[in-house]
Amino acid sequence: MFPTKELRDQAVEKHHAIEGGQQTLSNLAAYVTETVRKGAEG
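Given the sequence above, the corresponding structure tokens read:
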């Protein structure tokens, strides 16, 4: 939690939080897809 929108925006920019979050979600989607595919095969 950040006390102001400006401090939040600075942290997001500095640490590339958006890109990291998108990468995490992409990896999760790939994992779920593979898990479902393996479940359908077995």
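The helical segments are 5-15, 17-41. Try to locate this feature in the token string yourself.
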